[in-house]
Amino acid sequence: MSAGDQSRVPAYPGVEKFVDAFDTLVVQPRRTRSRVPVVLLSEPGEGQAGRRIVAGLRSRLRGREGRLAPHAYLDGASADPAAPPLDLYEQIAYQLDATMPRGTGRLRLPSYRLLRAVVTAPAAEGLMERRPGELRDHCYAAHREVSGLARSLWWLGGRDQANGGTLLELLWNFVAGPLFQRLPRALYGRRAGRRMLGRSRAGGRRWYAEWVRQQQGTPPSDFFRSAVDLVGGGPDGDPEQLDRILVHALLADLEGAARKRLFGPWRRRRVSRFVILVEESGPAESRLQRFLRELRAAMEDLRCTSVVAVAAGVRTLASRIPDIEVPSLAAAGADLANIAQRGTPPGRPSGMVVPVAEEAADDQAATYWLGRWPTLAPPATRFGPGTEVGVVAVGGLLALAAVAGLVAGVPFDRTGPDPCLGSTFLGTDGQCVGVAEGAASFATGDSERAVRDVLQRIERQNKEVESELAGRDRDDPRPGARTVVYFGPLSGGRDAEDPVRGGTLAELRGLALAQAYANAQALRSGERVPLRVLAANAGDRFKDAPAVAHRIVELAERDRSIVGVVGFGQSRRRTYEAIRIFDAAGLPMVGTSGTADELLRQGGHYYQTAPTDTRAGQVMAAFAAHAPMAGGQTAVRVQLVADPSDAYSASLASAFRAAYGASRTESLLYTPTDAPEPSPVPGAPSGTAVAAVEDLAREVCRAVAEEPRTAVVWAGRGSHFQLFLEELSRDARGCPALGVLGGDDVTNALTEERRPWEVFGGLDLHYVSHGRAPALADAGGEAAAFLSAYDRTYAEDHGSRTGAMREDAHVALAWDAMRYLAEGVDQAWRSTGGHEERLDRTLLQAVLYQGLGGGGFDGATGRIEAHGAAGGGRVSERKLIAVESGGPQGARTVLLCGTVARGDVRRTWGEAEHPCP
Predict the structure, then answer these.
(1) Which fold has domain 423-469+477-609+790-800+806-851?
(2) CATH topology for the 613-769 domain
(3) Which residues are in coiled coils (predicted)?
(4) CA 20 to 30 Å from 593, out of 103, 238, 501, 871?
């Protein structure tokens, strides 16, 4: 192998995905960056594969005419324990500065240089009061060695005292010393203090002040007074503490150097992250591994987004810091690519361990990709720094002209309205999130037109209530209106899960119909409370749920008419956070279709109308054990598909596996690349990780080929079920027929323009339903009332995605949730004795906690035992649940368990009368 080949990335299997993700992260735009975990290439023994990869990455950062990205490369000599401790940092600082791309300016590291001067200062002697000043003088002397301006001013200052000469010389010496020496030194000290401690009025303490507070219990008031303890490397010369503080200082400087400045054209041209490459990390207690541990901790503490680090030759790992463990270079590339696209969730480990080993470096896919992309390709800048200086100057002149025009009274009208109005704000995906009166700010995309229609219907119903109440006398004994907030994902940005496919449209339709039904009774009788509905957009897949929840709580503090929240249709970790926020504020909540057991554990103000995942998993296990799901026969083997990062999927999969039996279940764990929270949830099921949906389809087909009586239990989201079927259809020769049992979220896949059985012709689909109203219309009056209201409103809806929504249980569940909350408000009103001011969220919570009178009601999705927390729980214990068989001829109920109506409890299912779980 030639020397040139040695410097290139070896074509190991999967290395092209890793290198592609590495390149993407290095040149990622500033506005989309997040913290990147330190990549540790683990290679026990004496292997050289990791070293070859890191050397190849270094070669990608070197251009033919100049450096492509600033980087430091730490070779084996850096790990010498006999080397001075500061040599490692001097190497990093020197290499990063030397590899700055052309036109990006010099790399200045003021915090690091300052603390380096502190730790190398001679031991202070004499009075304690003088030591901070002596330390400042020492640091300023070190500063003069690197600052030409400070050095020139010191030279101009001459001596502190006159030593004779003419009167002019005496006058010069008298003025020059204070002016050019003592004054710059004092200003340097003040600036150093601000840099390290921050300004309280400018938004809190800097990292150094926080670090001292953690060490001593109180924040420092003077930098040099606190830094005296660090002279000589800190107390007792602790090398770990020395590394900790120098790494923090270095990263703080790099983070600042990567930021734009208005009048800094050189900084604007810094389009790449800083890269740190380690050739040989060694064992757990080696010099470089200690540095890497402190680097990881500092990146997490500072939320550093400007550094990418890859370390090879990790021989052993200390168990002091949790790591992300991936099985291969390809998996590491997929994870890093997801971080580049979606960001790193808070709390995720700061290190990623990737096992590598010597193998044939001739993988065809890797060789082809590396041949096409042999080097890093940073974005090109059109203009040089000089041109940018001119552009900034012209921009400044235009700004001055605009200010002069404003002073002179020239009107400058805005070109358009504020895109986010009222209590809404821009969310994670660039869409308006928050609370709105109606459809003003939400559902603006083409695919969201049906959602906007429902929001406009709710807005009209709100105005009808207000118009009716406006004509009443002040002493009218009838109750005034109360407000309910719907909390769900109403819109999404690029690559978002649209509200139709995500189930939001179904919930909104049920909610709007229930509002109209309840208000018709309230306005006609005067004995019930009319309800207004506000729409709160929690962002795509509840990404912005906590921030929106805080906004709702603030609004509820100002508006006492807000009595509760309805929604929470997706069980996600951000949903949990929102529930805890509402619970702390005392807002009662009613869930529409969320099912994870963990939802009920987030607070005592949350009530659920749908069955829990534990109950759904038990019903699915009973169905899989007895129903002919595999070619007309009972399955003997189950492939369980779950997403360990999704709270709903992980909960449902764990419940099914516990009820069905782990020995008969093979779990396939697939996390989509666009997952909002890609890290596994606590208690996620174990199994075989699958990187892509095509690999998932391949694994399923392999299992069916080995055992034809294999069935699939889909515990994932319905939005990814269609993609899975498309991959199956491409490999239909391997598994021409397949029986699938899905959770309740699979019903959202039925809203696609192509139904699942049209995508994959050999599909035998069964799915959980939380109570289809058409199946209950003859048994309960509420189901009939719901269907009548739906048909009156949407009888002419023949859309390809919404025409079959009448049979979607999510619509009826939202109806029941709204009716349940409305019934609670009505009972709370009756308990006030007609005193309007007493009807608030606290009284509603008391009613729901004690349980509705009458022991519940027969809802459109079965009987809801609304006995409240005081009666034993906040969810119906034997809530109706069904399994539907879907196909071109329509849905057919094949399992029905639970309470349909008062006195009608289904305890068996099927012709063999299998017992219900």
Answers:
(1) Rossmann fold (3.40.50)
(2) Rossmann fold (3.40.50)
(3) 448-475
(4) 871
